[in-house]
Each structure stands twice: as C-alpha cells, then as structure tokens.
Amino acid sequence: MITLVLLSLLSSIISEAAPTYQHHYCSNETFTPNSTYQSNLNLVLSSLSSNSSIESGFYNITVGQNSSNNTIYGLFLCRGDVTTEVCQDCVATATKNIVQQYCPRGIWVVIWYDKCMLRYSEPNSFFIMNDPSFSECTDNTTAAELDGFNKLLATVFDDLVTRAQSAQLGAKMFATKEAMFSSSLTLYSLVQCTPDLSSFDCNKCLRGAIANLPTDCNGKQGAMGLYTSCNVRYDVHPFYRIKPSPPLAPPPPAPPGLVTRTHNGKRQSSSVRIIAIVTSIAVSVVLLTMVYCFCRRKLKKKYKAKEEDAAKEITAEECFIFDLATLKAATNNFSDENKLGKGGFGVVYKGTFLGGQEIAVKRLSSSSKQGVEEFKNEVSLLAKLQHRNLVRLLGFCLEGKEKILVYEYVPNKSLDYFLFDPNKQRLLDWSNRYKIIGGIARGILYLHEDSRLRIIHRDLKASNILLDEEMNPKVSDFGMARIFGIDQTQDNTHKIVGTYGYMPPEYAIRGLYSMKSDVYSFGVLILEIISGKKNSSFSSPSNSENLLSYAWKHWRDGTFLELLDPTLRDSYLRDEVKRCLHIGLECIQESPAERPTMASIVLMLNSYSVSLPLPQRPAFFLHSRTETSMPIKEPGSDQSTSNGIPSSVNEASITELYPR
Q1: At what angle do helices 547-556 and 574-587 cross, to 10 degrees?
Q2: I need a surface site. Which of 193, 220, 261, 596 has the fewest CB within 10 A?
Q3: pLDDT tens-digit series, residues 264-321
Q4: What is the maximum alpha-carbon separation in the chain?
Q5: pLDDT, tens digit (0-9, with 9 covering 90-100), for 567-582
Q6: Phi and psi (nearest 5°) for 260?
Q7: Tens of pLDDT along 484-531?
Q8: Which residues carry out catalysis?
Q9: Rounded to a whole number, what is the distance in angstroms from the first to the last CA of the chain?
Q10: What span, in angstroms and rounded, lies between the C-alpha atoms of 102 and 100?
C-alpha cells in the first residue's frame, strides 16, 4: 500500500514538472517575413495557445482560404494523463520556442515535449506513416531475460493499441499500463493518437511506430517513438501519472457488546471506537470535498455556458476567440505603457503575440454605452468585411464582464492624431491627404455597394480613420453601423448616436439615416483634411461661424485657397484642392437627394472629365438675412479678396444627442 502511494506521488511530481524538450522537425522551405503566411501563422499559434486549457488536451485549427497557398493547419496534443495547467504550460512553451528558437520561418514544423506535441503545416501535408518522426532508446540497460521481456512488451503494446484505437468518438485515444516483469522490475507503457484520426488510422500509426522503434533498442529497458499523429513509449521507470488504486473499504464496526482481545487478553474496545470515529470523519470529509468539487464544476460549466451563449451568434463567423489570459500577456496586463488611445467606448492597447505579430486590443470599459448588442454588431459586421481601406478584425474576447476586440495593428494611429496637431500637420503633405481622401471614399463605397451587405457606418470622423505605415487610410469602429436590405434606402431611430459636427441635419433633427448620412460625414472630413481644422472646435474671425460656413464663403467668393492648411502652401496641387473642396461641399448639401453617391464621388476623384454641379449653400450654414442675394463667384482664379463677415444667426436645431 505504501509502495503504491509513493509511486502515485512520484508520478504526480513527474507530471507537474516543467515540460522537457525532446525533438523538433523544421522544413527547409520557409516563408517570407511580414507575409500573409506569417500573419496566418501568428493567428494559428495564438489560437492554439488560447485553447490550451481545453479538457480534451487536443485542439486543431485551420486559418486561410482552402484554395490559398497561405492556408495553415495547426494542432496540439497533450499527454493524456496531464492536468490542464500542465497542458497550458507545455503548449505555451512550445508556441514560444518553436518560432523564437527552433524554427522561426519553417512552413512544416512539429515540436515534441514529454507532455505535449505541437505542429503546423499546409493542410494534409503530414501523412500518418511518412511524416517526420523521431525515436530513441530512453534506457540503454539491457533486460536480464531478453525473451521474456520482449514477450511481455509485445503483449502490453498489443493491449494498449487495442484500447487506444477503440476509444469512443471524441474521447482521448490514450492508454497506459503497468506490468510486473519481476519482483523488482515493473514495465510502464503508454500509447496515444491524435483524436482527429479514425480508429483504423490510429491502429496503423501506433503499430507502425512500435515496429519502427530502433533496432538497437531491442531488449533495452526504455524506448520511445514520436510521430505527428501518434506516439509510443515504454520504460522501467514511471514517466506518466499513475492512477492510484481505489482505497480499501474500512472493516465494518464490531457489533455492540463485542469485545476484542489481544494475545494478552486486554480489552481493545476503546481503540476500535477511536478507529471508527476517525474513519467516519475521514469519509465525511472526502464526501464533502467531492460534493464541493461537483457543485463548483457545475457552477463553472453553467457560467461558461452563459459566456458561450453570449458569443454563439458571432463564433460562426470567420473570426477567432481569444482568451483573456492571452490578451493580458500580449498587452502586459493592459499596461499604460501599451495604451494607444482612449475613446468613448474604452481604451485601445498595443499588444504583441508570441509569434511577434502586433495587434490593437480594444477593451470596452464597464461604463461604456456600447453594450453586448453593439459589441456583437461590430464583430459580426467586421468578420464579413475584407477591404484594404477597412480595419481588419482578428478576433474577440467575451469572458466574464470583459468585452474585447482584437484588430490588426495600424502603426500610425488615427487621422486626427496628425491632422489637428500643429506639430504633426506637416507630416501630412497634400499628396498624403489626397490619398487619404480617396482611400476613405473607396472604403465607404465598399460598405455601401460592394460588400455582401449594405452597411451604413453612422460615425465617420477623423478619429475613426486609422493610418497604416504607408499612410493608407482604414475605416474603423463599426459599433454604430447598421445593415440595410437590398432595396432599403433609409431608416429612422429615436436614439441619436454619433459625434456632433459630423451628423447630417435630417439625422440630428428627425433621426433619419441612410447612405447619404455617411456621404455628409465624408464631406465634413474632406473639409477638415483640406483645412487642418476640426469642425466641432473651429474658430474664425466671427465666433458664430463653423467650418462648413467658412468653407462655403471662401468657395462663393473665389478665395478657396484661403481655406487651405498653411502647412500645405508648398506642396498642394491647385486643381486637386479645388476639386476636393467642390466634392466636399456637394456632400454637405442640406437635402440628402442633392448629395452624390459614394460611387459618383470615387469617379469624380479619379476622373477630371466628369463635370461637377455647382454646390448650393450647405446644411447648417450660418448666414445673415441680408446676404442671401449675394452673387456666387466661380473660383476660376487665384485672386484673394477680403470680405467682412457680418453677424449671423444660427437657424439649425439639434435634438438630444448621445455623444460618444
């Protein structure tokens, strides 16, 4: 009994120790750094690490289109006897070391530890019997009775293979066995298959692995064979966790009045009573512990089920679920040093996965007005959208009270970071600004007409335009977006959400929104990009004026270059500035019907042969009652005139807003 306890304790210690590296295989074919393959690989490794707490100890995933050369299939398999904590530790070690130490750029890779195996490759690149493998003797001592030892080993392995390949669907294809070879020697044996194999393939893989053990291991007291789909091992020393034998039931208490005597005739009734009491207490403690563990597990599963129900609607999309621990590790526990910015819905952090991929993590605050519905909305929308001018969603985390979105990392932050900072405006020359205007237009056009859905963004503004390393714009933040039907042209809402200064009048006053709402916001953006001034905080010689009315007056008076950001005086192209301002004023017309579509805008930006109608006075124009009859000058020259701006009355009204 004591021997079994010690063996159980020893095997437990062995199992809980840090993972021990055994071998790895790395193909000669490599991928290009910063390529789509590397991006997909980072997602595979992150997903494997995120799911390493799964109870089965096995997880596989495919990332990429099936027809693409960048598609990656990855999996991990933990030894069937280890705990989830040990499995997590082993998989984390494997994902880190394989890219940082053993195989930074390999396309076909497998790494073995004593407690887990991890691999990735193109789908179907590894074959059951012809895949990379590794085998060696773990104990070079020759058994005393060679024939008897080999016969026992053959019998044990035959039993183990039968048990492993006969596992029920979804169960671990794993089996261990202890067999006494002599009074002083016990044989410990283990076999395991990846659960994605069929029963037939598991049998084939295991028997092939046993047959292919090195010939110089014949009669040795320890050997192992490692394959990408199965593994076998035996040794005379315990290397896995041995399940302890069930404790013997305590003897029944003596009947009342029964007196037991020792050989010298002394009474032992008091001793029996003490043993009975101690045994009862011990049994009670064990039962209470079992009940507690059962209830705790049940509550944990119930709580986890709620999380799964909350995410069920969005897990079907082509989007990855990250666990909170992975995102904490990537962002250094959401440290202030990693903070990229803060918005109305929460804080955005920079993170780095183990494979080196940089990410942007949007962690919604508990006080954020974006609830679960808005969160689901943003995930389900972005998961369907793929365009170079839209930010790419990599995945999400919905764990407990946490609602987190994981995006591609866009290094140059947002447009407002440069546009409205006097010290950074010079970094945006006219060439970059013109490219940004065109990129935003193409992104919105994709939302309105070219994607699988017709999407109204409803919150276009400079802070929601991200800039990549080449200053290409990416539209972001789809929490307020809405999907329209194929024939739907507009909708209305009683809850006005968005940002003051970018809302069209029909939305701010009556709650009506349509594709033309985004067109209006885009027009405001154009004026901000040209002028380098923010509409909501615009200051002018007349405090009763806003950017829209200021731009209109310069257009009307033929002095449109006065609107231009002073930092652009040496880099602008006059015709491009004029055309962009013309388009911007068309976009902010008061009547939605007078605003162009995004398709027309993209065409107008790319073709000078398209004639543009003269814009009318824009929405929210602040004017005096005496200037409605003033003539409009076509801005055909660079002449600069100075006109006094009379006092004006703001005739626009806004309903109650819910600003972000």
Answers
A1: 120
A2: 261
A3: 444 445 566 667 676 767 766 666 666 666 655 555 554 444 444 444 444 434 457 7
A4: 129
A5: 998 888 999 999 999 9
A6: -100, 150
A7: 766 666 777 767 777 878 989 888 888 888 999 999 999 999 999 999
A8: 459
A9: 68
A10: 6
Q: Please state the φ and ψ torsions of residue 364, each to the nearest 5 degrees.
A: -70, 135
Residue recorded with tokens 């298959």: 193
Token representation of residue 406:
């994981």
Which tokens belong to 205? 């893989």
- Calpha distance 352→336 (Å, rounded): 15
Is the pTM value of this prediction over 0.70? no
Is 246:231 a contact under the CB 8 Å cutoff?
A: no
Rounded to an integer, what distance in angstroms lies between the CA atom of residue 51 and that of residue 17?
21
Q: Are residues 70 and 87 in contact, defined by beta-carbon separation less than 8 angstroms?
A: no
Both tokens assigned to 495: 């809850």
Among 537, 554, 529, 543, CA closest to 501: 537
The amino acid that residue 28 corresponds to is N
Residue with tokens 């380098």: 532
* Contact call for residues 391 and 325 (beta carbons, < 8 A): no
Token reading at 116: 């887990």
Burial class (CB in 10 A: 0-12, 13-18, 19+), 610: exposed
- Cβ pair 193, 202 in contact under 8 A: yes
For 601, left (φ over 0), alpha (ψ -120 to 50), or beta? alpha
**At 56, is the secondary structure helix, strand, or coil?**
coil
Phi, psi of 62 (to 5 degrees): -125, 130
